[in-house]
Design goal:
416 residues; alpha+beta; 16 helices; 12 strands; 12% strand; globular
Length: 416
């Protein structure tokens, strides 16, 4: 039924979660991991979370008589079942290894088991953020500190070790190119041949290789996105930055639902919240500026409300908070003090502001083809890719030359 992974310390279960019979299959998973739950006093309950648009997330609790809610939560388990077809987007072997490494450094809850189509890990008590929460200063300062801990404490090399599965593998399917259903590692890694792999650039390259090409329009779009990726890598990937070869271990998906604010007593107010991050499926080495720019984009939520994105003064304060925490855990570049480093990173984040649109736009084009979740990925892809094109038009001057109105996102980004 199961085997123990001695290297990483979590169990591998030869079971799967069935969305058509969710509670029964979740119960089998829990009882395999905790057989004592079956006969011990107290009901087993499952709570379904709905914040994400990719995976199924359930909380399993054992309501033992006499325990407080905190004690029940301390024993609770999260069951995350992957969305169908998402292996084309995510290296699941690397995800579980990254989770273990994060746990070893106190940056993630204990990973208990990996089953055939998901993970089981300890529950983190606290409040799941919504996009409005991210705009609150006591929250965003806590987020800045936690991102800094990730970037300072997680070794990039350890996160980039080869996995048992080929990181280049992509599941075959009707949406894949018949002659390129399993693109080679060389094809993927060629986008950044001199850098550690995988990294955020090779992830985007893998996604582009998986784009549908059934029509001439799809082929044209794929070729255009390939050219844009090569252009962006040439312009940005070699900018001197924090970390190892300009890369840190980045979360790459810091939307509001992945930020948990820790509980505290009402009579004990705090000026800066303590937060944790969950869901590490997109975590990979990336420039720190990408992780920050990507998080700032998430202030607008899935609705992409560009009018609430952080202004220049807020981004500057966020980055100064980040650098202060980063410097308390590891050394800054030898030629920079904290203020110089913050000034440099502020400019770098500005240069990266359009890249999350490219990243999530390509991701959504694939999801529109494979996902069974009720979400309009096709429209979302167009909105996110337009963010990239608007950035290009602003930086290149074509928007101004053509006397077009500056888009709201670009106006908001330029506000002091």
């Amino acid at each position: 039924m199961s085997e123990t992974n001695n290297k990483h310390g979590f169990r591998k279960l030869s079971l799967s979660h069935n969305s058509a019979d969710s509670q029964a299959s979740a119960l089998r998973l829990v009882l395999t991991l905790f057989p004592d739950w079956e006969k011990a006093d107290g009901q087993i309950e499952f709570i379904r979370f709905k914040e994400g648009i990719t995976n199924t997330l359930l909380k399993a609790v054992k309501r033992r008589p006499g325990l407080t809610e905190k004690e029940i939560d301390d024993e609770a388990v999260l069951i995350r079942a992957y969305g169908k077809g998402t292996d084309v987007l995510i290296d699941r072997e690397r995800e579980s290894q990254s989770h273990s490494l994060l746990c070893q450094r106190g940056l993630a809850p204990e990973l208990l088991a990996r089953f055939q189509n998901g993970l089981m890990y300890r529950f983190i008590r606290g409040q799941v953020c919504d996009s409005e929460d991210l705009t609150q200063e006591r929250v965003w300062r806590g987020v800045a500190r936690r991102i800094a801990e990730w970037h300072a404490l997680m070794p990039v090399v350890a996160a980039s070790e080869p996995t048992a599965s080929n990181a280049a593998d992509s599941p075959s399917g009707s949406f894949m190119e018949p002659l390129n259903s399993r693109p080679s590692a060389a094809a993927i890694n060629s986008i950044t041949p001199s850098k550690l792999t995988p990294n955020v650039w090779t992830v985007i390259q893998k996604w582009i290789l998986a784009l549908p090409t059934a029509s001439q329009a799809e082929k044209k779009r794929k070729n255009e996105l390939q050219m844009q990726l090569a252009r962006t890598v040439a312009e940005l990937s070699d900018i001197p930055s924090l970390g190892n070869e300009g890369l840190v271990f980045a979360h790459c998906d810091l939307l509001s639902g992945n930020v948990i604010v820790h509980p505290h007593e009402p009579e004990d107010p705090v000026s800066v919240e303590t937060v944790s991050f969950i869901d590490y499926e997109y975590a990979t080495p990336a420039p720190a500026a990408f992780d920050l720019a990507n998080h700032f984009a998430e202030w607008g939520g899935f609705e992409c409300n560009h009018g609430v994105l952080p202004t220049r003064s807020v981004r500057r304060a966020f980055i100064e908070e980040y650098i202060g925490c980063y410097a308390s855990h590891t050394s800054l570049p030898s030629d920079m003090d904290r203020q110089t480093c913050a000034d440099h990173l502020f400019k770098e984040v500005d240069a990266y502001r359009g890249v999350p649109g490219l990243y999530w736009g390509i991701w959504a084009l694939i999801q529109a083809t494979i996902s069974q979740i009720d979400f309009d990925y096709a429209s979302y892809a167009e909105v996110r890719l337009q963010e990239y094109w608007d950035w290009r038009a602003e930086e290149g001057g074509s928007r101004e030359n053509e006397e077009r109105e500056r888009p709201l996102r670009e106006r908001r980004w330029a506000e002091e």
